[in-house]
Design goal:
This protein is an alpha+beta fold. The chain has 16 helices and 29 strands. The protein starts with 5 loop residues before the first strand and ends in a 7-residue tail after the last strand. It binds zinc ion (ZN).
């Protein structure tokens, strides 16, 4: 071990109590008193999460001498001055089954470094070594991570032993799974990949999943490196790991430089022996595609505001519509290009994305640039008024990407596309990010990059679509590709202008659309629906639909609700159903505008 490494050992010592013990050693602590901290947030998820609150106990020693430890902020501690080495032991409570935290019980252990590894303030650039220790007997687990292992392996060949990271930033970018998951391996463009599934899911069709994921990975590697087909994570890892926790209805993912942590529904995955995959399988493949695309776009091509991350506070950028929105555009497009979905399915997925943007009045009030900046306080802290007040930099960002792609294709007669812009960004900022100066994309550099990559000036479009609140004129732009886009209502049933959710034996208004029927009639979010024209509504959204289907747009109904515990009556004039459903039709060649 180098004198100049920060070392850690991590032991899942109390699975039943959900506790890891972590010992950190700093060879030469700050003589004025070493400060250590836990990140306030985890990169990729833009919310202050205060991981330090899960530290149950902290103890510091230099040799046999116990040192005073003083909490110096929400996330930090100051250790009394000492001559090194300084050893700090923490006990971390891990009972958050999400991709962002840490989780430990008798079935498995999972952690992000942001939850368990203290940051040695002032020594973050030093290389790190981590020894992963096994769980107590009789548990016999294996380790899965994209962290590279050193030759200090514990006997058993199960991955327990020592791992290394170039610095603290690398250390916290490789989550670790330990347990007895289902695993399948494949190579894509020669690069090893591991698919790891934790959670009960009998008869998973692992071979089919691996085959489809491999096609997606190969399409993406070739997209960014059309000449060399070189996978980016091979710079520091020997594999890419998809670690997935399967539950009844999980969904989510978090990207890392050589791995991703996913939550998915077991019911969305194909079962061996069943030829037809569940409908949700495309959703799972879309999630896989999304997180994998981040290996390039946000884990290496980064906004300058993330280079480096400041883990102690919010990091503001107006560019998440590029890093999340463009990723959302390409995740589906690369499903199509890799052949795992066909054109019909692709257009159906695109139509859903367009519909969800059109259903949000907030898109007229907030730009995707402002939504990016305010991710920490608005997108990640949504409430009942969010659909009226904010826009998603994911969904509208993906439509901005589509609009730019179609604009570039139109103005270059199909010679250039947004692909050229992505590859120029990769070349300029991404490929050497970890090996080189680690420079990110400046806030105002994007329009010039588009011009450089394609010769097309999109500054005017970006001002309206990304920095302003205008809709992307998709019908006009799709027509240039001979695709007609028409919007229609998905029902003839009149609209109440509210989203509902089942709550016990009744339906509650989850949100009320501004200027919709419910709003104009006086109904509010959180009202509990009791009856419409004297008929009980019940707890099922379908029963409400059946009731509303008895009426026409323009009819006025009496709605009884409980607001808190007070019965109220409102008169609501039902509206025409909104035309937000997309129909795509091929136009005859030559009919484009
Ligand atoms: Zn993402």
């Amino acid at each position: 071990m180098s004198e100049q490494s920060i070392t850690y050992s991590l032991e899942p010592f109390d699975p039943a109590g959900h506790r890891f013990r972590v010992v950190m050693t700093i060879p030469r602590p700050d003589p004025a008193g070493q400060v250590v901290s836990l990140p306030a947030w985890i990169p990729g998820s833009y919310l202050i999460r205060d991981f330090a609150r899960h530290i149950e106990a902290i103890d510091a020693r230099a040799g046999a001498t116990r040192l005073a430890v003083t909490k110096s902020g929400n996330h930090s501690w100051r250790i009394a001055p000492c001559v090194g080495p300084l050893q700090i032991t923490t006990v971390v409570y891990a009972w958050d089954l999400s991709v962002r935290g840490a989780h430990l019980d008798e079935s498995h252990g999972f952690f992000n470094g942001t939850s368990v590894f203290l940051q040695p303030r002032g020594a973050e650039r030093l290389p790190c070594r981590v020894t992963l220790l096994p769980a107590p007997p009789p548990l016999r687990w294996r380790v899965y991570t994209s962290l590279p292992m050193t030759d200090r392996r514990l006997p058993g060949g199960d991955g327990f032993g020592e791992y290394r990271a170039a610095n603290y930033d690398a250390l916290i970018d490789h989550p670790v799974e330990m347990g007895t998951p289902k695993v399948i391996r494949f190579t894509a463009c020669g690069a090893p990949h591991e698919l790891v599934f934790t959670g009960l899911a009998p008869n998973l069709d692992l071979k089919r999943i691996a085959g489809d994921v491999r096609r997606i990975c190969e399409a993406q590697i070739r997209f960014f490196e059309p000449q060399t087909h070189h996978a980016p994570f091979l710079d520091s890892s020997d594999r890419y790991v998809f670690m997935t926790v399967l539950t009844a209805d999980g969904y989510g993912g978090l990207e890392h430089r050589a791995s991703t942590a996913l939550m998915a529904s077991r019911n969305d995955l194909p079962v061996a022996g069943c030829a037809k995959a569940p409908d949700g399988y495309q959703t799972f493949l879309g999630l896989v595609s999304h997180e994998y695309f981040h290996t390039w776009n946000v884990k290496r091509i980064k906004p300058a505001a993330f280079a480096p991350y400041d883990l102690s506070r919010e990091n503001h950028t107006r560019l998440l519509w590029i890093f999340e929105g463009f990723t959302s555009y390409y995740d589906d497009l690369l499903l199509l290009r890799s052949g795992v979905v066909d054109r019909k399915d692709y257009l159906r997925i695109l139509g859903k994305q367009i519909s969800s943007v059109l259903a949000s009045p907030g898109r007229h009030k907030q730009s995707v640039a402002d939504s990016s900046f305010d991710a920490w306080t608005r997108y990640y802290k949504q409430d009942e008024n969010s659909p009226n007040a904010i826009v998603s930099y994911y969904t509208k960002g993906s439509l901005v990407a589509l609009g730019l792609d179609l604009t570039i294709r139109e103005r270059t007669a199909g010679v250039r596309s947004l692909d050229d812009v992505m590859r120029l960004m990769w070349d300029r900022y991404g490929r050497d990010f970890y090996a080189g100066a680690g420079k990110g994309l400046p806030e105002r550099a994007f329009p010039a990059l588009v011009r450089e990559a394609t010769g097309v000036d999109v500054a005017h479009e970006l001002r309206r679509w990304a920095y302003g609140t205008e809709d992307v004129p998709l019908a006009r732009l799709l027509a240039t590709q001979h695709i007609a886009l028409r919007l229609k209502a998905d029902t003839t049933r009149p609209s109440l202008g509210a989203r509902v959710r089942s709550q016990g034996d009744h339906l509650t208004l989850a949100s009320v659309t501004q200027d919709g029927a419910a709003h104009r009639g006086g109904l509010s979010a959180h009202d509990a629906l009791v009856a419409i024209d004297g008929i009980r509504v019940g707890a099922m959204p379908a029963a409400l639909d059946t009731l509303l289907a008895r009426y026409q747009a323009g009819d006025t109904v009496r709605v009884h609700v409980f607001r808190r515990d007070e019965l109220r009556e409102f008169k609501v004039t039902l509206a025409a159903p909104p035309a937000t459903d997309c129909v795509f039709e091929d136009m005859p060649a030559g009919s484009s505008t």
